[in-house]
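Exercise 7b. Backbone tokens:
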């Protein structure tokens, strides 16, 4: 079930919390998007804080996310929020097109 923020009316940010069991339940944050017209207003930071609260209140052990290696703004946001690069796992993708 997506968590949807729709304030202001033309802003729609979707956070899809997927339950993933490793040793304990973990949220995988697949999509965090703020339209360009609403960036630099602290919205992404607020969404990240909301996800942390959602995870803590729900008893999850952590939050996992990924972004493009050249998406420096997103990486800065995540690192500023306390996320760390995972050095234990490598992400693979098989292109079917």
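Sequence design result:
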């Amino acid at each position: 079930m997506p968590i949807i923020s729709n304030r202001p009316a033309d802003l729609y940010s979707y956070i899809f919390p997927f339950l993933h069991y490793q040793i304990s339940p973990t949220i995988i944050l697949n999509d965090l998007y703020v339209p360009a017209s609403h960036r630099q207003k602290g919205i992404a930071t607020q969404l990240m804080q909301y996800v942390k609260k959602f995870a803590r209140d729900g008893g999850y052990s952590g939050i996992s996310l990924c972004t493009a290696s050249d998406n420096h703004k997103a990486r800065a946001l995540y690192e500023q929020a306390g996320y760390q690069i995972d050095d234990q796992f490598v992400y693979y993708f098989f292109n079917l097109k």
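Instructor comment: The helical segments are 43-58, 72-80. Strands lie at 3-5, 13-15, 17-21, 25-29, 62-65.
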